[in-house]
Predict the structure.
Amino acid sequence: MSAPTVAVQSEGVRVSLARARIATIVQGVLRAERARSALVSVTFLPSRRMAALNAKHLAHRGPTDVISFGFRDAAGATIGDIYICPEVARANARAFGRPVREELVRVVVHGTLHVLGHDHPEGEARLTSPMWRRQERYVRRWLRA
């Protein structure tokens, strides 16, 4: 299997993880989840742009930490886009008493799992869902690496 192709860009926001590290995390999750081939983009957005995406695609008000879109093409390749708002991730890190880099790893992993088709319930139930447990295993793995 060839390495999944991952592109990382930032639209005028500061991200405290190196682009290469972000790409490595996405590639690692894709490989661990046995994605045969994949093309994934990760884009970091300011809160105003994230709020617009959230309203347009999910009919929710305000910015969120991560939004993902994914599908498999006719050949079975995973194709996806992950949008992350570092401002919301920083606020969540503060609210949960976590380091910002840990929270950024978490949203990168979370977005990648959504691209692969994993989902979770809304509200508090998401914290005990199979997707959340899988996500936290990957977060621990990448924080140790």
Notes: Strands lie at 5-10, 38-44, 66-72, 78-84. The chain is about 45% helix and 20% strand.
